[in-house]
Design goal:
With 338 residues, the chain is of the alpha/beta class. Helix content is 25%, strand content 27%. The protein has two domains: 179 residues, Medium-chain alcohol dehydrogenases, catalytic domain (Quinone Oxidoreductase, Chain A, domain 1, Alpha-Beta Complex), CATH 3.90.180.10; 128 residues, Rossmann fold (3-Layer(aba) Sandwich). The chain starts with a strand and ends with a strand.
Length: 338
C-alpha cells in the first residue's frame, strides 16, 4: 500500500523514539492519510513532560493532533473519490449518536473522550488512519503546510461562532500566540471599529497589526477597562482570563479559549454579575467550527502560513517540543515534516 513508515512513539513522559511501522490499512468507514505536515503546540509539550491530566492522555502514544495530508486509501463504505484528495481532520472522535452530537455540539460528545494524538495514534508519523467522517476536504492547490494550522484555527472558529462578532463593535484579543493571531484574522473579517491585541511580546504584537489589529499594548491598561463589546482570551496565562473580563463593557461578551495551569486567577463573580457579562468557554471544536475554519482558509480570509517559523524533521521531535513554550518570542508555529 505505502511500504513501511516511521512514527514518533512517546512511551512515557520524556521517553521517546522513532520507530518503523506498517501503515494500518483502513477498515470500514476509515481513511488512510499520508501526513504532509503536523503542528506542535503547547499541549504536545504537556504530553511530552507528563503534565496533561491523566484523563486526557494515554501512554504509550504517537502524538500529533494538528495535521494536514492526502488520502491514500479508503475502507469499505467510503467513497473512493476521496483517494488523492487533500484533507485535514477533526481531532475529537465523537460518537455521532448521543444527544449532544445530534444537536451539532460534537465537541461535547457524551460518548467518552477520545482524541487523535492524545488517546489515539496521532500525526507525528508518515501516515494516519482515522474515520473518514472526520475529514474535511481542501482545494486541489491547498498549501498543506499552512493547512496544518487548521486545527487551532477550528478552535478559534468555535470561539468566533460563540462570540457572534458584529460590524462596528470594539473587540479585544488577550494573547498573541497562535490562537490569538488566528483570532485576529477571524475577527478582522467582521469589520470591527477597533481591534485591540494585548500581549507583552512586541514581535507578536507587530504581527497582529499585519493581520488587522488596530491597536496593541503589552498589558491591559486601566483606561481600557470596560471599553470592549467582545473580548476573546487566548493566552491561557495565570491572570489572562481575569484581565480579559475587566476589558469587557457592561453587557459585553467574554470568550475563553486558553487553558491555564493550576493556581490561575479566577473570575470575579461580582464583576460578572454586576456587569452582566456573557461568558463562553471553548475546548476543542465542533464539526461546524471545523467547516467554518476550512471555508475561511479556502476563501483566503485566513492566512496561517505567516505564523510558521520552524520546520523540522520527524526525528527532531524533542527539539521541536523544546522550541514550543521555550520563551523565545521569535518562535511561532513549529511544524514536523514526515
Amino acid at each position: 500500500m505505502t511500504g513501511r513508515g516511521r512514527a514518533v512513539l512517546l512511551e512515557a513522559p520524556g521517553e521517546h523514539r522513532t520507530i518503523p511501522y506498517e501503515p494500518r490499512a483502513p477498515g470500514p468507514g476509515q481513511a488512510l492519510v499520508r501526513v504532509a505536515a503536523a503542528g506542535v503546540c503547547g499541549s504536545d509539550r504537556e504530553v511530552f513532560e507528563g503534565r496533561r491530566p491523566s484523563a486526557y492522555v494515554r501512554y504509550p502514544l504517537v502524538p500529533g493532533h494538528e495535521w494536514s495530508g492526502t488520502v491514500l486509501a479508503v475502507g469499505d463504505g467510503v467513497c473512493r473519490s476521496l483517494v488523492g484528495r487533500r484533507v485535514v481532520g477533526e481531532g475529537f472522535h465523537n460518537c455521532g449518536q448521543c444527544e449532544r452530537c445530534r444537536a451539532g455540539a460534537t465537541s461535547l460528545c457524551t460518548g467518552g473522550y477520545a482524541e487523535t494524538g492524545f488517546t489515539l495514534p496521532g500525526a507525528f508519523a508518515d501516515t494516519l488512519t482515522l474515520p473518514a467522517r472526520l475529514l474535511h476536504l481542501l482545494g486541489e492547490d491547498a498549501d498543506l503546510r499552512a493547512a496544518a494550522l487548521l486545527e487551532p484555527a477550528a478552535v478559534v472558529a468555535a470561539a468566533t461562532l460563540a462570540a457572534r462578532p458584529r460590524p462596528g463593535e470594539r473587540i479585544a484579543v488577550v494573547g498573541a500566540g497562535t490562537l490569538g493571531l488566528l483570532a485576529v484574522q477571524f475577527l478582522a473579517a467582521s469589520s470591527p471599529a477597533a481591534l485591540l491585541v494585548v500581549d507583552p511580546r512586541l514581535a507578536r504584537a507587530r504581527q497582529a497589526e499585519r493581520f488587522g489589529a488596530t491597536e496593541t499594548c503589552p498589558a491591559a491598561a486601566e483606561e481600557s477597562a470596560g471599553g470592549y463589546d467582545l473580548v476573546v482570551e487566548t493566552a491561557g496565562a495565570g491572570g489572562s482570563a481575569a484581565a480579559a473580563a475587566r476589558l469587557a463593557r457592561r453587557g459585553g461578551r467574554l470568550v475563553l479559549t486558553g487553558i491555564p495551569g493550576p493556581g490561575a486567577e479566577g473570575l470575579d463573580p461580582a464583576l460578572l454579575a454586576v456587569n452582566q457579562l456573557a461568558v463562553h468557554g471553548v475546548f476543542g471544536a465542533s464539526s461546524r467550527a471545523w467547516s467554518h475554519a476550512v471555508r475561511m482558509f479556502t476563501s483566503g480570509l485566513l492566512s496561517p502560513a505567516a505564523l510558521i517559523t520552524h520546520e523540522l524533521r520527524l526525528e527532531q521531535y524533542a527539539e521541536a517540543v523544546a522550541l514550543v513554550g521555550g520563551g523565545d518570542e521569535e518562535v511561532g508555529k513549529v511544524l514536523l515534516l514526515p
